[in-house]
Amino acid sequence: MPAGVAALTGVLVQIDPDPTVTAHLTLYVNGNAAASDAEPSTGDVRFNIGSVAVSPGQTVTIQISFTATSGQIITLYTVGSPGGSFTAQNSCPDGAASFTTPAGLRAVVSGTT
Q1: Which of 112, 113, 96 minimizes the C-alpha distance to 9?
Q2: How far is residue 93's CA from residue 104's CA, in Å, rounded to a whole number?
Q3: Ramachandran region of residue 82, left (φ > 0), alpha (ψ -120 to 50) or beta?
Q4: Which of 25, 52, 76, 94 fits a 20 to 30 Å CA distance from 88?
């Protein structure tokens, strides 16, 4: 976490829209679960995490899992190499690959100073 950020207040993630799929986000600070939210997969998914206090030097991780009544998520959008890594682990029987890449999740984490 860079200097000047006092709290994280929201997360916006670009996920394929599918109203039958629910995205479950957990935000971790230094490996400890600090906030969670579940929202329908609507393209630009806004997760409400309240206000999570952070300090310079802390590591923040976003974990997203999905539940569905039918259908599946085809794409979680990634971008560039912002540092860290993006890991996708597929536990569905459709045979899609699991992988890790240096690309980042296309997401915006909001906060306050």
Answers
A1: 112
A2: 26
A3: alpha
A4: 52
